[in-house]
Amino acid sequence: MNGADVAALIWAGAFAVLVIFLVIVLIKVSKLLDATSATIRETGETVGPFLVELTETTKLTNKQLEKIDVITDNVVDATTNLNSLITTFTTTVGGPLQRISEIVRSVSGLIGKKK
Questions:
Q1: What is the pLDDT of residue 36?
Q2: Is the pLDDT of residue 115 over 80?
Q3: Residue 68: what pLDDT?
């Protein structure tokens, strides 16, 4: 055995150690991928029912919002009607009351001048 044979044996031993380390790393990576796959599978199984529940909640929320829209429209109509009623009342009663107050002022002014 000469120097080249010894170097070849050392190189072969180092290569075998490298291969062993690579096999260990690949086994660990394989376990990691299996765990990741299991986690993804579990997540997929739990997300399905969650999405169904979320869809139902969204439908119920939309129904409630439609009811609120109807209520809001009714409040707008009631406010408009009340505004019209106040305007009509003010016009109907306010004009004559203003005339009466002018007459009372005139009469009190005349009475005040006679004293």
A1: 95
A2: no
A3: 95
Q: How far apart are CA 64 and CA 2, in angstroms?
A: 91
Q: What average pLDDT does range 7-23 have in this prediction?
A: 95
DSSP-assigned letters across all residues of 11-54: HHHHHHHHHHHHHHHHHHHHHHHHHHHHHHHHHHHHHHHHHHHH
In the predicted model, is pLDDT for residue 102 greater than 90? no
**Exposure letters 5-21 (e unless 16+ CB within 10 A, then b):** eeeeeeeeeeeeeeeee
What is the SS3 assignment for 72? helix
Q: What's the CA gap between 55 and 69, in Å, rounded?
A: 21
Distance CA 102, CA 90 (A): 17
